[in-house]
Amino acid sequence: LQGGYFPEHVKAMTSLRWLKLNRTGLCYLPEELAALQKLEHLSVSHNSLTTLHGELSGLPCLRAIVARANSLKNSGVPDDIFQLDDLSVLDLSYNQLTECPRELENAKNMLVLNLGHNSIDTIPNQLFINLTDLLYLDLSDNKLESLPPQMRRLVHLQTLILNNNPLLHAQLRQLPAMTALQTLHLRNTQRTQSNLPTSLEGLVNLADVDLSCNDLSRVPECLYTLGSLRRLNLSSNQITELSLCIDQWTQLETLNLSRNQLTSLPSAICKLTKLKKMYLNSNKLDFDGIPSGIGKLTNLEEFMAANNNLELIPESLCRCSKLRKLVLNKNRLVTLPEAIHFLTDVEILDVRENPNLVMPPKPADRSSEWYNIDFSLQNQLRLAGASPATVAAAAAGTSTKDPLARKMRLRRRKDSAQDDQAKQVLKGMSDVAQEKNKKIEESGEAKAPDLKTRRWDQGLEKPQLDYSEFFSEDVGQLPGLCVWQIENFVPTLVDEAFHGKFYEADCYIVLKTFLDENGSLNWEIYYWIGQEATLDKKACSAIHAVNLRNYLGAECRSIREEMGDESEEFLQVFDNDISYIEGGTASGFFTVEDTQYVTRLYRVYGKKNVKLEPVALKGTSLDPRFVFLLDHGLELLVWRGSQATLSSTTKARLFAEKINKNERKGKAEITLLTQGQETPEFWEVLGGQPEEIRPCVPDDFQPHKPKLYKVGLGLGYLELPQINYKLSVEHKKRLKADLMPEMRLLQSLLDTKSVYILDCWSDVFIWIGRKSSRLVRAAALKLSQELCTMLHRPKHAMVTRNLEGTECQV
C-alpha cells in the first residue's frame, strides 16, 4: 500500500468480516474502512500508525482491534472505541503508551487485553471492576511497581503475563483468587521467597509457570501443590537444591533449571515419567549429581546439560529411546557410554569443548540404523594426523570384548527359556493326540461331528483392499447420515447442508448409521443414480457402495435407487425431503482435446535453488546478465545473456527438462540460444527484436515474498486467513532440524481436505486438495480472481489452478 494507495475493491466489499493490513506501510487508517459496516476483525500491526482516530467507532460489529508494533501514544487512542458493544479483543502492545487508555474500563465485554511492551507505570483501580470476563491479560515489559487489588475479580482469567516489571513490593495476593488460571509468567519481576503467595493450591488448572530471571534461592513451596503443572521455567535464579516433593508434578513435560547453582538432582525426578524436555545448562552438576534411575524417563526427548562439571553421564540416560537432542558441550567429559550408538532417533549430539573426550568404539555390526561415523580411537588419531606407531599402539590397547555379542548371548539365554516352554506345550499336545488316536483304534472308526452348512454370503471373502483413500476412519462410527458424490471415479463427501439435494447428472452414495435394538451400530447403504448420469458414474457408485460395505464390515446389502423411482425407505432417510437440480460434474472419462498452452517468459535467478520470475512477453524484458526461459508450449527455449554464468544456464536447462518430462510428456523440444544468435521465430514470439538488449533489472532487486492463504467457509461468509509458515505448528508433519532456520514454504503446510491460494505477486496459484469440497473449490476460484485484480499487478500476472499431485513445475 505504498504511496497512500488503498484498493477501491475493498471499499466495495460491504460484507467483509475480517481484514488484515499488517506490514503495509500505513500511516493513518484509510477512509474506506467506514464502508465496511460488517467488519468484525481489523489487524493493522507492524505499520507506522500514530493514531487510531477515524472511522473505527462507526463500525458497529467490530470485535477485535490488533494494532501492535506501531507508534501509538495515548493521545492517538480514541475513547469512543471502548463504547463498541462487541469489542472483545484489543492488542496495543509494542507502542509508546505511558498509561492505560482512558475509558478502557467501559469495554465490559473485553476478553483479550494486551498492553505489553509499552511504558505504563500504573494500572487504575477501576480498570478491573467491569472487565471481569477477561481470559487473557498481558502487561509485560512495562514499568509497573504494583498491581490493583481489584485483580482478584478476574475469576475467569486463563493467561496472565507480567514479565519484566519492577514488582519487588507486589505481594501478588490476588493470584489465589484466579481459580481458572492456566498460564502464569512472572519472568524478571524481582520474585523472592517472601513476595510470593504461600499457597496456590486452588489453581487446579495452572499448567505453565515462568519464574525465570528472579532471586529465588530454592523452589517456592507454593509450586509443589500444582499437580497439573506441564511447563515450569526456573532458569536464571540462585537455586541450590531441589526438594523430594517434585514427584508431585506428575504431568510435567518441560523443566528448565538452567543457570542456577545446582550440584545434584534428587532421585524423585525419575518419577516424572511424562517429562519430555529437561534443561540443566550452566549449573554445577557432576556425574554423581545425575540420578542413575534417569532411564525411567522413557518419554524424554531433549536433555541439555551444557557448561557443567560432568566427566561421565549415566548409562541409563541412553535407555531413553525417544531422545532426539543431547547437548553436553563445555563439560569435562572423558567418554560416553557405549549405548550411545543405540539412540537411533538422535538428531543433535553436541559434545564440543570437551578436550579430553574419547568417543566409545562403534559396535562391530554396522546396522544402517546406527550412526555412519567411526568413533574409534584409532580413526580419531588417524584423522588428527598422529603417527602410524601411535595409531598401532592405540589399536593394541583396545579391549577385544564385544558388548554387542554379550547382549546377543543374554538375549539367547532369554529365548532358550522360552524355547523350553514351547517344547513342553508341544509335548503336551502330542500326548493328547496319541491318547485320542488310541481311543479311536479301540472303539473303531470315529464318528464325524455334525457340521452345519454355511450360508452363501458367509462363504464370501472380503477382498484385501485399502479403502482409506476413499473413506475416513470415523465413517459409520456415530449415528447419523453421510452422503458422497461421485467425482472423477472417486466418492467426495458432501456437506451436510446439501443432503437431499441431488444433481440429475450425478450419482451418490448414502450411508445411514443407527443403533439397533441391542444397542449395536448398524448401517443402511444406498447408491442413487441420476437420470442423466454417465456410465462411469453409475459403475463407480455401485462399486464404491460395495467398498463401503466391506470397509464397515456390514452385513446389509447395497441398495440401488434411481431418480424418480426411490423406495419409501430411501425417502424416509431424508424425511421425504429430496429435490433434483439440473446439471452435474463432468465425466471422469478423458476427452481427446488439444492442450492449450500459455506462452510465458521467465527470468531465471538464484544461486542455490533455481527460481523463476515471470516477466512481460517482449524483447525489452531480456537482460544480458541473466538466463531466460521462454515457454512456448511444445517449444522450450533457454536464452543465455552474454554476461550470464554457465551454472545458471545449466540449471535453467535442467528445469526445462523437468517441465518437458512432467508436464509435456516428453513431447516438447528444448533449444538453447545465446545472445546474438537468436532465431527469427524467437523474436516473432516476443513481438520483435529490440534495438539493444540492456540491463533492466535493478541491482537491489528483491523478489516479492510469497503469501499463502487458506480458503474457508464461515457462517454465511468466506474466510481467507493467511498462514504463517514460519511457525512449526502450522505444518502437518514434524520438521527436520535443518529446515527450522529458514522455515521456507513446504508441502507439509498443505492439507488434502483444504484449498489454498499462493500469492507470488506476478502469479497467483490455487492448490486444490483431492478431498476438498466442491463449494470451497468454487470459492477459491472467485477469491483468487478478486485477489489478483485488487492490487496493482503486472499485466502478465495470471491465476493458475493446480490439483494435488499434478502441480506445475513453476
TrEMBL record:
Q: Spell out the CDD domains in the cross-references.
A: gelsolin_like (cd11280), gelsolin_S1_like (cd11290), gelsolin_S3_like (cd11292)
**One Gene Ontology cellular component annotation?**
cytoplasm
Which GO biological-process labels does this protein carry? actin filament severing; actin polymerization or depolymerization; barbed-end actin filament capping; myofibril assembly
Keyword Repeat listed? The answer is: yes
Which keywords, in A-to-Z order, does the entry hold? Answer: Actin-binding, Leucine-rich repeat, Repeat
Disease resistance R13L4/SHOC-2-like LRR domain boundaries: 223-304
Q: Does the keyword NAD apply?
A: no
- GO terms, molecular function: actin filament binding; phosphatidylinositol-4,5-bisphosphate binding
Gelsolin-like domain residues: 489-571, 609-683, 738-793
SMART domains linked: GEL, LRR_BAC, LRR_SD22, LRR_TYP
Q: Which domain of life is it from?
A: Eukaryota
Name of the molecule in the record? FLII protein
What is this protein's gene name?
Flii
